[in-house]
Specification:
Elements (H helix, E strand, L loop, with lengths): L1 E3 L4 H11 L6 E5 L5 E5 L8 E5 L6 H17 L4 E5 L19 H11 L4 E5 L14 E4 L2 H11 L6 E4 L5 H11 L3 E8 L5 E5 L8 E9 L3 H12 L4 E9 L5 H8 L4 E4 L7 E3 L2 H8 L3
Parallel strand pairs: 1-4, 4-5, 5-6, 6-7, 8-9, 8-11, 11-12, 12-13, 13-14
Antiparallel strand pairs: 2-3, 9-10
Length: 291
Amino acid sequence: MIIGGSASQALATEVAREMNDKLCSVETKKFPDGERYFRIKDEISEDEHVIIIQSTGYPQDENMMELFFILDTLSDMNVTNITLVSPYLGYSRQERRFKEIECISAKATAKLIQTMGVKHLISINLHEESICDLYDIPVDNLSAMPAIAEHIRENYPEKKPIILAPDKGAENFAKEVATLLNTDHDYLEKVRLSPEKVKTKTKNISVKNRAVIIIDDIISTGGTIVNAINILKQQGAKAVDVICVHPVLVNDAILKINAAGSNSVQATNTLKSEVAKISVAKTIANHLKNI
């Protein structure tokens, strides 16, 4: 039985179709004062394996609270075999303490999710792999890169684009996609020319007259991506496209990226977005079939 939360109902429908499983009928609504209502409309047996699919991105508090309502309702129904698929796991960008006496939000979230009865957690491209260590239950951190590579193979006109990470931290994503496509990859690095001057350039490969696809896990404001596009244009790239896993995309980020010269901005459907053109339903379904 698959339950789709408000943030991921379309994705839950796709996963249920891929697995040939039943999608549970639910009722959700928001009261005039902003509080949420949730109801399960189908019968669920106590021994059933229930899979909840609910991203907890913006609005994080609202989506997280609905998730807890779902979990508490299942507890009242004596359901104990619960797997949570949260393709984008909110409050996971602070997994350690940077200043004294500040909340480690990823740890606090982990405590709540486990207390509410989740026995297995599945997410996609967590911001840090170390987040898995905050849980006492199995946590599977899936990669969206195969789905992204397949999308590029089927839809991108250039057969051998350079797959580029905007910084060293995202190089592993670019490398994974490039390996699947049998093409080149690189990342942008900062080179200090003098105590006062720093130049950002590709590490190993010239992009002159080459098509480039920038790959990243999360794009929030788009500032890093805009900087990367400007550098690639200066270095003679003939075309630039942008793909990310999690399209947070706040504060006119899409407009800024397009204005900088990107041909397109695309993302997976871990979050609802107008640019979410790449489905991770098969990635999730194939994994669920094997657990």
